[in-house]
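Collaborator request, handled under Task 6.
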Amino acid sequence: MFAVASDFITDLGRQVSQTKDKVWTGVTRRVVPALDRASVRLNADVPVLEAAIGRLDATLSLRAVRARVEAIHDETHDTKTYWLRPNARFGTFRAGAHVTLHLQIGGRAVERTYSLSSAPRTDGLVSITVKRVAGGHVSNWLADTLRPGHVLTLSAPRGEFVLPNALPRKLLMISGGSGITPVMSILRKLVAESAACDVTFLHFARTPRDIIFREELERISQAHPNVRLAFCVEADGGTREQAWTGAQGRFCPELLQETAPDFRELDTFLCGPPAFMRCVVQTLEREKADLSKLRYERFTTEVDASMFSDQVTRLRFVRSGFESVSNQPRTILEHAESAGLAPVFGCRAGNCGTCRSRKLSGVVVDVTTGLESQPGEQFIYPCVSVARGCVEMDL
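C-alpha cells returned to the collaborator:
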C-alpha cells in the first residue's frame, strides 16, 4: 500500500511540475516577444533591469542587439551558414547589408564583420555564411564552437552595398570565394520578389567543391530564365567523380566578354578577396567600362586606391559610408546622386552656394574656373567640383 501511495505521490508531483512548466512556457512565449518589442523604445543602462530580463530570455536587452543561433548548415567542406533569430533591436535591413559580431574568445573581446547572406524574410531569421580561413581566429572559432541555442551580440545591419531604389533593367554580379555572400543576399531578394531584372551572376572559386551556394544557384538559374549563371574555377579538383566542364582559370576580359557582352554599360556589384577585386576593377578600367556603375563591398584596408589606375576617381562619402569609383567626367554631386544619396543643391552651377560641403581630403577641380583645390580639408561646391584621384567628402 505504501509503495502504491508513494508512486501515486511521485506521479502527481511530476504532473504538477509538467503543468507548471507548460504554464511558464506559455507565459514566456507571450511575454518575451512583447518585452522585446517594448525594449526598442528604451536605450537605458540599468544593470539590474538588464539582468532581470536577460534571465527571462538571453536575447532580451535594453541596449544591445542579440541573436539566438537557430540552425547551422554546411555549405561546403569548409563553409557554414549560421541562421540567427535577432531581437527587435536588430530592426530591418536591405539585402547586401552587413553586421559586426562582438565576441569573447579566450577572454578577449573580438569583433568581425560579415555580410548577411540571407534576404529579408517574413519569419525574422537572418544568416551569415562564414568560410574557415587558415589561422582564422574568429572563423575557426565559429565553426568549432558555435551551436544552436547559443546567443551572440552583434551590431544593427548597415552598409551601402545594396540595390538602388530604381532597379536597373540589367545587373552584373561578380564574386570570388566567400565574397559571394552579399551578392547572394541581393539575388535572393530579386528572386523572392520576382523582380523584372536580367541578372548575370559570375562566380569564381578554387575548385568545384569550393563553390558556395552552388546547388541553390543552379536551382535559381533553372527556375528563373532572367538569371544567367556562370562558374569559373582555378582547378577542377582532380576528382573524376566531379568532372568539371565549365570555365577554368582566373578572371579575364575574354570570360567577361563571353558571359556579359554588354558589361561596359551594366550596373555591377563586386565582392571578393582584395587581389581578385583589384584585378576585376583594373580589367573594367582597361576595357573602358563605366565604373560609375560599379558598387563593391570590402572589409579590409587591403583594397585601397592602388587598385585603381591614375585615371579613375575614387570618392568616399564618409557620413554615408558609401564609396564610389568612376572613370566618367562627373561632378561630385552627380556621383553622390548616382550612389543614392540626396545632398541639397540649388542652381547646380556653383552660384547659389546651397550645396556647399566639406571636403575632408583629396584634390578637386572647379570646372567653372579650372582651378585645383588644396589636398586638405576645406569647403567646396560639389555641383561644380570634379574629383581628381581619391577624395573624401563629409556627406
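The cover message to the collaborator said: "Residues 2-39 form the longest helix (38 residues). Residues 13 and 158 are 51 Å apart (CA to CA). Please let us know whether this matches your experimental observations."
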